[in-house]
Amino acid sequence: MSSLSVSRCPVLDPTGRSMHAEATALREAPAVLVELPGPVRAWAVTRYSVIQALTNDPRVSRDLRQHWPGLVRMPEGWPLSALALQRSFFNFYGDEHRTARRRVAPTFSPRQVEAMRPRIRKTAEGLVDALAALPPGAVADVRRALALPLTLTVICDLFGVPEHLRGGIGTGIDAVLNSSLGPEEALAANNTLYGRLGELLRYKREHPADDLTSDLLLPSDPAEEPLSEDVLLGTLFLMIGAGYETTVNLITSAVQAVLDHPGTLDGIHEGTIGWQDVIEETLRLEGPIMHIPMRCALDDIDLGEGVVIRKGDAISVAFAAAGRDPEQHPRCPERFVPTRSGKEHLAFGHGPHFCLGAHLARLEADVALSTLFGRLPALAPARPGERPARVESFIINGPLGLEVVPRPV
Q1: Beta bridge partners of 289
Q2: Structural domain range at position 26
Q3: Are the CB atoms for 155 and 244 separated by under 8 Å?
Q4: Does residue 102 contact residue 352 with C-beta atoms inside 8 Å?
């Protein structure tokens, strides 16, 4: 009997309001059967070691179109379809994944990313200057005033997105990743986003330039066919969405962590803590991506402790839960401790699908934090002790906003 025939299972909150508490409860076993929007029954994996094992296991595929028998039961407007069925190397399997990934990988090498630092710093300085120009006591949302425009500018510059399309693509990605939407709203959000990405492709066909979108429109080899329209659209969604949404949340969460732990800045000034310590500890504690739906088992997989994922079962990997696993971090796993010696996390994934943009995300966070607190050392939370509202998603993890006082009275 398939393990998915179990009659009752926990339902993950699609708003993500209690994602860390849910992950703690799910960590009781190597994998726990849960219900995702659809509804879909999938094995939620939250342990560090099990995530590492499954994301490296060739018996696990991200290509649901090819390998998941449950797809035929999903209705039009399935809320997870935009991510789970995206046609890009995000979901491709085997050689198809490796070939597609190579199309964009060189741009995100450590050397190429480091060369972007001066331009990123210039953008960050302009945004922080605007915060510094506010009158004493004025309140600003650091997510909307710094994290969002910085990351959107960086990724849109790379892909040659014209100014008139940037805001629409950003809000479209936000809407698609809102896992609390109903089927009709989810379908509308998906259609709207892909419509805007289609506009970008039409614009770049008419105005090719030295950017990644123009490169994707050309075959990588004269003997090869150009990428199909759906793969082009899926790749743009993946790269712009990942380059924007995850880094916005990383920067915002890191600013919140520093403000919540004032001693951190003392350590920065004394040289006992570096911004990379803050970034890695934020990634460990508040990874920007929680549940990635979905993967599919290509064969039975025995995880031990009586848990067997059967062939054809769906799997949801909780990457942001791995950093809080007490087996990996026995000392205060749910506390922000930037001085801890080991900050291992899986915030950027693991295995063949490890995030291409990890170097860029770290660089943007480093520039944003050093520029913000260097220019505004007295920056303070507008509502001390109050936890800001969260992004409505069990996929994305981050504050919906973070109000600060750049220049306290």
Answers
A1: 396
A2: 3-405
A3: yes
A4: no
Q: Is the peptide bond before 239 cis (omega within 30 degrees of 0)?
A: no
Domain containing 227 — which CATH number? Answer: 1.10.630.10
Q: Is 149 helix (H, G, I), strand (E, B) or coil?
A: helix
The DSSP-derived string for 263-303 is HHHHHHHHTSS-HHHHHHHHHHHS-SB-EEEEEEESS-EEE
Number of domains forming the structure of the chain: 1
* β-strand partners of 405: 380
Give the N- to C-terminal CA distance of the chain in Å, as an integer.
Answer: 67
One-letter amino acid at 301 equals I
Return the amino acid letter for 1: M
Please state the rounded mean pLDDT for residues 341-368: 95
User: Looking at residue 399, what DSSP letter applies?
Assistant: B
User: How far, in Å, CA of 168 to CA of 163, rounded?
Assistant: 10
The residue assigned the tokens 């330039």 is: 209
Distance CA 279, CA 275 (A): 6
Q: In whole angstroms, how far apart are CA 201 and each of 76, 86, 132, 228, 389?
A: 25, 17, 38, 12, 35
- Residue 44: count of CB within 10 angstroms of its CB: 26
Q: Average pLDDT for residues 159-188, to the nearest whole number?
A: 92
Tens digits of residue pLDDT in 282-310: 999 999 999 998 999 999 999 999 999 99
With CA atoms as reference, report the closest residue to 159 among 368, 380, 393, 357: 357
Cβ-Cβ contacts under 8 Å for 405 (sequence gap 6 or more): 137, 138, 139, 140, 379, 380, 381, 382
